[in-house]
Amino acid sequence: MPLALLALAIGAFGIGTTEFVITGLLPDIAADFGVSIPTAGFLTTGYALGVVVGAPLLAIVGRRVSRKRMLMVLMGLFIAGNLLSAVAPVFEVMLAGRIVASLAHGAFFGIGSIVAAGLVAPEKKAGAIAMMFTGLTAATVAGVPMSTLVGQHAGWRVTFFIIAGLGVLGLAGVAALVPQQPKPEAGRIGGELAAFRNPQVLLAMAMTVLGFGGVFTMSTYVTPMMTEVAGYAPGSVTWLLVLFGVGMLVGNLVGGRYADRALMPLLYVTLSSLAIVLALLPLAAHNKIAAAVAIPLIGAFGFASVPPLQKRVLDHTADAPTLASAVNIGAFNLGNAIAAWLGGVVISAGFGYTAPNWVGALMAASALVLALVSASLERRTGARGGRIAAGSTRSTPLSAEREPVTVGH
């Protein structure tokens, strides 16, 4: 494994920790600033929207900068945002710090995916991307519980100082271990925007929004579901979230391993399995053991789809991948926001705390339908290309004339 992947994973660990730790510290932060819990919830919403906006914006701004330097700039933003949160005198400054930190999120994972893929042989790209995302999943297993524990005992400001320190470590790792790579070849923004005319790219991003959104219909409301329906004590939810994180970690590694071998079949399996488990969870939630089994399965199937979806975007934007890759990271967060909103709608309508899972099942099933449409479109395009090649006067097959697709240079 190239050591540069370790540096990217460390940065991802810090970003994942700061994204999710706010949920465990929300009551403390709200009390400290004298605001309500719903108002403090804007710290989560603001972060998600910052990712959606920051991903394409910083990808465009950094087009003419080397990817290594851009990754260092993004880690600098991450550090600054978390330090601002740590010293914030009022809630509005805390919110500003969260937004500053979030701006780095999408572009870091988008550009980092390209760098990771460029560090290894073509047949190992998805595995390299998964290795970087391991930092994000490890944050849910270790970073978030530990940071929450520190915040509850030493104060939430100490937590954000520590997370800023993780950013410094990530910045040093990128500076020391990530090799210099050429600047992106696309000289004009039109070259990057042209990728969005490719229906396969749009389909992959729609699958990202729907598939990953399905996961967050469960995770957003897991605490009231487990305490009010399954009957777990509030203190036990932390361990259920650790199980969820373990599932995410395992799923991410499995997805990275098999996406290079059978990308579309893997998506069929993960998305269909995700839809089934989400559909069954409203029944399973009435049994503690069944609920404890279902939660990590949702994390596993959801995150097993991350490497193949990100790789699919890169495969179809090889000439200008930076913007599309960053936008796809934003699509994950867009899915989170939509899922949380829809889940809140069905709960407010009186359908109960398990109802969001039905919404998630429908989202995952819709993503599966899009995957089938994407594969069908690809087969038709390939068949058309084959007919053109067969009718040509040249004796060399069309597939043999194509240059290998490479990413990251």
TrEMBL record:
Residue span(s) of domain Major facilitator superfamily (MFS) profile: 4-382
InterPro entries xrefs: MFS, MFS_dom, MFS_Efflux_Transporters, MFS_trans_sf
Extent of Basic and acidic residues compositional bias: 400-409
Compositionally biased intervals (Low complexity): 386-395
Main location: membrane
Name of protein: DHA1 family inner membrane transport protein
Transmembrane segments: 38-59, 71-91, 103-121, 128-146, 158-180, 201-223, 229-250, 262-283, 289-309, 330-352, 358-377
Keyword Transmembrane on entry: yes
UniProtKB keywords: Cell membrane, Membrane, Transmembrane, Transmembrane helix
